[in-house]
User: Which sequence fits this backbone?
């Protein structure tokens, strides 16, 4: 039947050296575990897992935000060891069968997945328009590409689970120099910590954390927040994860992975916002521009 929604193609890379290191049976167990985790997350967020062929996964979503969250979570998964996921997402009208999906959006998603680096998600402009403001804020425009088999040139945006400096393509219109000097303020109860370019703050239950959150479900070294090249990144190091809400948007989960913090918002360490308000760290960002300062 005809459907309109998101096509997700995710691929597991680095499987060849895993076979050489662990042997066939052990490597297959690791790969299947990684694929099963993706399948569970797809179904949990309302998507349809269609099939897995070799190392790749095809899924359909009616909600673009849920599709992006699944792709981001998969690329953030460092428990997979040497295995790394890269993914492509597209949006449009497709033909859906019980265990397959056909149409131009599927082809675009597949090509984007093949272009993505390990731990990177690439999406094209039609998909971007279906996202919430908070979800769009986690992406950066990287290029305008001509994809084989697609007549129109497409604007492509990227999410990278690695540090922002590891991007292999330069951001098209988001250089730190053009955006001015960035200042970030983190606040937990009466404690306040400020960050500027090149600095990092640790969050956790340990007394030597830069910002101490003394709740039993918070890990001793739960997360870090850093500013690099004008981009604010939260890295979760915990078992229970960090729950991020940007500008009152959709709640994003980081579990031993990274999330780019956009605008103002809050991070709940170790528990969803609905379950606890006792471990919520609020953050705000301000930028100063040299040009505006000279004009005063």
Assistant:
């Amino acid at each position: 039947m005809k459907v309109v929604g998101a096509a997700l193609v995710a691929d597991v890379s680095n499987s060849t050296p895993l076979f050489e290191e662990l042997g066939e049976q052990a490597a297959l167990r690791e790969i299947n575990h990684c694929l099963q985790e993706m399948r569970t997350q797809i179904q949990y967020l309302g998507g349809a897992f269609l099939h897995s062929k070799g190392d790749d996964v095809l899924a359909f979503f009616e909600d673009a935000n849920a599709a992006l969250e699944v792709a981001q979570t998969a690329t953030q998964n460092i428990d997979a060891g040497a295995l790394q996921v890269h993914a492509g997402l597209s949006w449009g009208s497709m033909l859906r069968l019980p265990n397959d999906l056909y149409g131009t959006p599927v082809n675009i998603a597949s090509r984007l997945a093949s272009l993505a680096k390990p731990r990177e998600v690439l999406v094209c402009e039609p998909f971007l328009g279906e996202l919430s403001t908070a979800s769009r804020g986690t992406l950066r425009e990287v290029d305008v590409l001509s994809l084989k088999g697609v007549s129109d040139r497409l604007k492509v945006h990227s999410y990278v689970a690695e540090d922002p400096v590891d991007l292999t393509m330069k951001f098209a219109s988001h250089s730190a120099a053009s955006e001015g000097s960035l200042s970030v303020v983190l606040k937990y109860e009466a404690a306040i910590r400020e960050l500027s370019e090149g600095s990092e703050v640790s969050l956790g239950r340990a007394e030597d954390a830069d910002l101490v959150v003394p709740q039993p479900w918070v890990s001793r070294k739960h997360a870090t927040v850093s500013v690099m090249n004008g981009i604010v990144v939260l890295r979760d190091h915990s078992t229970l994860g960090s729950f991020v809400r940007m500008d009152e948007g959709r709640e994003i989960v980081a579990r031993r992975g990274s999330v780019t913090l956009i605008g103002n918002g809050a991070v709940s360490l170790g528990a969803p916002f609905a379950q606890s308000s006792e471990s919520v760290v609020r953050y705000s960002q301000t930028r100063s521009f040299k040009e505006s300062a000279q004009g005063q």
User: Anything to note?
Assistant: Helices lie at 15-22, 24-44, 64-76, 104-115, 125-128, 133-136, 176-179, 290-295. Residues 178-290 form a domain with the Tumour Suppressor Smad4 fold (CATH 2.60.200.20).
